[in-house]
Design brief:
single chain, about 190 residues, mainly beta, four-stranded antiparallel β-sheet
């Protein structure tokens, strides 16, 4: 053996990686996961989430700062770009989104806190884009062609739970994304919460 790991993910400059046990999250420097990269949420050499991004309404967030808290947790602070609202425009830097991400007992937990610094109440949508491809580590690294099975997505509006289930032959994997607390009832459509 030449000393290289057989099962590994290369972390590029500008990427963040947190891990605990067999669960690993590789994100860009903004703590978001970009599609068509090696970024994702992995457990036991399978990528359960391949794309994960936050937006205010339909606008990308502006990163203020992001970094590690511990080997198993990271934190990011974002603000808003100029947003068009039904009541007019919201200038930049009026809202803050703090995301604390940690891995705990094989689960990835994102704690989101929005703070309004505007001089009046603001109604906005916090959009979460999420996709699962259930690629194994060899597919991600380009070692073999993808084996595509069926991915079934189910949104449970009462439980506020998105479930993606993957089947390929005898292989089965499932990812659940639960909204524990929200000021208004979350909805799901076209890969977005």
């Amino acid at each position: 053996m030449n000393g290289k790991l057989k099962h590994s993910i290369t972390i590029s400059p500008g990427e963040l990686m947190i891990n605990h046990g067999m669960t690993v999250v590789v994100s860009d420097r903004t703590m978001q996961l970009r599609e068509n990269t090696s970024q994702g949420v992995y457990c036991n050499d399978t990528r359960f989430i391949s794309h994960h991004r936050y937006r205010f309404n339909n606008q990308p967030l502006v990163l203020l700062t992001a970094g590690y808290v511990d080997y198993y947790s990271s934190i990011a602070h974002y603000t808003n770009p100029m947003l068009k609202l039904t009541s007019g425009e919201l200038p930049t830097n009026q809202l803050r989104l703090r995301v604390v991400r940690q891995i705990e007992h094989g689960r990835v937990l994102d704690d989101l806190r929005v703070t309004n610094y505007a001089m009046e109440p603001v109604t906005i949508g916090l959009v979460i884009e999420i996709k699962s491809d259930f690629a194994d580590i060899f597919e991600v690294r380009g070692i073999h062609a993808p084996f595509r099975g069926a991915v079934e997505t189910v949104w449970d509006a009462q439980a506020h739970m998105l479930t993606n289930t993957y089947r390929q032959g005898e292989f089965f994997a499932q990812m659940g994304y639960h909204i524990a607390v929200a000021d208004s009832p979350p909805t799901y459509s076209n890969g977005e919460l």
